């Protein structure tokens, strides 16, 4: 008996210990500070909604699940922008380079696109939101193309939040398109080459009539603009949030707006100087 008891004790002592799986709990972002006053808010916010796939992968889910979760975040950020009086919101949804992703992921994205416009267009129109698609709409699959054209036509006369969604979009392609339009205008005798200035060039961009981007936000911790609105971002303030897009909520959005409000925007000048003083100093 004693020998059997000793054997069991030794067996328990040297038996491999189980490997426990620990999961770090995901907590919501901390309460946001007070929203800056209207005059301190950006007129035009651009967001690169990055990290959907990585959000899903980190949870053992297919990438398509991340894009679906990202749509929920998108819905709330659009509502927040409208609630807070943001004039224009530009969202990077699908680039020309994204076509190179797997057929399954692209198909899932196209399906979500149709679902989003079918489910949200009534609310967006009711809230007076004007939808503009930035990018090559004609290059989209036919069902999606029709949904986008219908959304733009339905909200064309709305005068609330300007919601710009970049789909099948590339920044360099946009600049090349603007150059072609200007070249054609010169060829047709509508303008002279000397008439082409920054204002004329900007009038040929997808964002014609909108103010330049004041604030660019990118989620997922990546710190690059990825060919998004290169002309419009010339003097934008940039904030990079480490969270993946599906976790980006109103609290994080408000923090980004507070960071923007704390920035000293000089547009190439020197704080405390008048424009004439700046020119004199530059000449010396």
Structure description:
The protein is of the alpha/beta class and 284 residues long. It has helices at residues 2-14, 52-57, 63-83, 103-126, 142-154, 171-187, 198-202, 250-262, 275-283; strands spanning 44-48, 88-95, 130-134, 162-169, 215-218, 237-240. Strands 3-4-2-1-5-6 form a six-stranded parallel β-sheet, with helices on both faces. Strand 3 (130-134), helix 5 (142-154) and strand 4 form a beta-alpha-beta unit. The longest helix has 24 residues, at 103-126. The chain is globular, with a radius of gyration of 25 Å.
Secondary-structure blueprint:
Blueprint: H1 2-14, E1 44-48, H2 52-57, H3 63-83, E2 88-95, H4 103-126, E3 130-134, H5 142-154, E4 162-169, H6 171-187, H7 198-202, E5 215-218, E6 237-240, H8 250-262, H9 275-283
Parallel strand pairs: 1-2, 1-5, 2-4, 3-4, 5-6
Structural class estimated from helices and strands? alpha/beta
Mean of the pLDDT scores? Answer: 88
Which word captures the global form? globular
At CATH level 2, the architecture of the domain at 39-170 and 212-263 is 3-Layer(aba) Sandwich
Short description:
With about 280 residues, the chain is of the alpha/beta class. It is built from nine helices and six strands; from the N terminus they run αβααβαβαβααββαα.
List keywords for this structure.
single chain; 284 residues; alpha/beta; Undecaprenyl pyrophosphate synthetase; six-stranded parallel sheet; 43% helix; 12% strand; globular; disordered C terminus
């Amino acid at each position: 008996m004693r020998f059997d008891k000793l054997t069991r004790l030794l067996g328990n002592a040297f038996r491999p210990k189980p490997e426990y799986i620990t999961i770090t709990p995901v907590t919501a972002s901390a309460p946001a500070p007070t929203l800056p006053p209207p005059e301190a808010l950006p007129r035009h916010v651009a967001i690169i909604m990055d990290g959907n796939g990585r959000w899903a992968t980190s949870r053992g889910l297919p990438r398509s699940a991340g894009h679906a979760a990202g749509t929920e975040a998108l819905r709330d950020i659009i509502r927040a922008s409208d609630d807070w009086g943001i004039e224009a919101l530009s969202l990077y949804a699908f680039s020309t380079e994204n076509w190179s992703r797997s057929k399954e992921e692209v198909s899932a994205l196209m399906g979500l696109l149709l679902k989003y416009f079918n489910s949200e267009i009534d609310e967006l129109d009711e809230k007076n939101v004007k939808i503009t698609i930035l990018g090559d709409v004609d290059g989209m699959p036919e069902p999606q193309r029709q949904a986008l054209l219908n959304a733009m036509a339905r909200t064309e006369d709305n005068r609330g939040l300007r919601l710009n969604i970049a789909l099948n979009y590339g920044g360099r392609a946009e600049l090349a398109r603007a150059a072609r339009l200007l070249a054609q205008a010169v060829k047709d005798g509508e303008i002279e080459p000397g008439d082409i200035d920054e204002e004329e060039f900007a009038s040929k961009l997808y964002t014609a009539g909108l103010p330049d981007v004041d604030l660019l936000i990118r989620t997922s911790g990546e710190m690059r603009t990825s060919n998004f609105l290169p002309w419009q971002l010339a003097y934008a303030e940039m904030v990079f949030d480490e969270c993946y897009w599906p976790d980006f909520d109103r609290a994080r959005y408000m923090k980004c707006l507070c960071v923007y409000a704390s920035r000293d925007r000089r547009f190439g000048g020197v704080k405390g100087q008048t424009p004439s003083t700046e020119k004199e100093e530059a000449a010396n």
